[in-house]
Amino acid sequence: MVRGPRFPIDGVVYRSPDEQAALLASGAWLDTTVGELIRATARAHPDKVYLYAAGREVTFAELDRRSEGLAASLIEQGLRPGDRAIFQMGIAAETVIALFACYKAGVIPVCTLPQYRDIEIGQLADMSAAKAYFIQADFSPNFDLVGFARRMGVAHATLKTFIVARGAAPADMLAFDALCDAPDAAARAKVAAVAIDPGDVLTFQLSGGSTGVPKIIPRMHGEYLAQARGWARMHQYGPDEICIWPLPIIHNAGLLLVVLGSLLNASAILLQEKFDPVAFLDAIEKHRVTWAGSIGPIAPRLLDYPDIARHDLSSLRMFVAMDRADAIEAHVGVVTMNLYGITEGLLMSTSPTDSPAARHWTNGRSSSGDFDEIRVLAFDSETPVPAGEQGELCFRGPHSLRAYYNADPGVNAASFTSDGFVRTSDIVREVVIAGVSHYVFLGRVKDNISRGNEKFAAEEVEKLIVQHPAVLDAKVVAMPDRYLGEKACAFIIPRPGETCPDVEGLGAFLVDQGLAKFKLPERIEAVTEFPVTRVGKVDKMAMRAIVKDKIQGETGG
Known about the structure:
CATH class of the domain at 34-43 and 54-195: Alpha Beta
Strand content: 15-25%
Helix content: 25-40%
């Protein structure tokens, strides 16, 4: 039987039928779809709670029933497999139900967020040619998302179907709850007739750009589920797992690490609409949470929280973060490991049983094991560098991007090596621990600082600055210099009660750590928090603008 997408989308590059068949046969892809998985899990565990959200409990049976009803309603509204949907919904049970309804109907969610405004929604609506629009009416008391969605519909002609959750739907829009409950058996039969293939597109994710409008990354049912399974196996997920997640669900991280990983194991998720250290730790204690993660500012805020000991965290068996695993483990008292993920298709971490050296001082190895090939190449070349030397992380495997959706050919050509490895623009160093290659993330190529043409990674310096006893967190950016081109500026959040180190004192500390002098920060900005983008990521572009403006003001240049 020939395998491949049942509902191909123009602008998406797919695997060949033979390649897909080989991936399914090897286990590199799962031979199922998300919709099939939801139905099977609901049959096996109908009364088991999958979601804890805002005081509400959603069982697998309810999730299946409501997502099936919503999927049928989407089809009745004229949406077809391959059509795209904008999502302006937060961290809520309704978001998960809406996502799974789209997966069942073959409608493709676009990774959009409620914080996006005209530029982001407008460009992503046009890029994806989205037809549907999901809105969470109560997301913000200070912004009318429903009115905004209507305005976007006027400006972008493809947007036709508007679904409003958690609030009253105007006459020209559809009510989420009514769509979940209304369809009859005949309508549901239409959903069953949507025979999606593991090679069909599941979601339109976005590239890792933090401030501009990123490129669109198609991810498929079979490969996405397999990557989530690899992550769950690496972290030894079991059916009694309870994962806490106070971050966007629709992102690659939320889907792979939590939503699909938990679904595969019929385990539970605790959603929090926003992060607060006390509420986060209280929820772990109350619900006996076993797994917690930090993608963004959560870890620094926990490190700044002084009363960890008053919370019973005995149920928590592991914590995952982007970095600082050693500090988190010491502060929280829970086994912690770093991770690395890129939406183009690589996910790395370590097992909770791995050594502290692997867990704390690397970002791990591929969660898909030998299915992924990883190379560290010299910058702007295809020449591998020896283990231990810095280079650009490149990878190829069953989950790796083949081409950005509808991107300019030049963009796609620049994103891959001649033999199909994805170029990440991330700087890493390979280290071998117990005979296994692990990778240490050092920063982005674009975060390089070129001081007199000597280039170094900002995050390499950041990892040492945060070891200073007076420093809670630090970010390093390039600042302009008339003679050398660039110098390093450190934005530092001091620990409570501590004085921020000055340039001389920090320099002496870093030299003692073994850092070359040309990498030392030559300016320090003491701050109480870092500027962030609309989606909560640290905004280094804003930091560079801040220090540039200050220098110009000081010099009159």
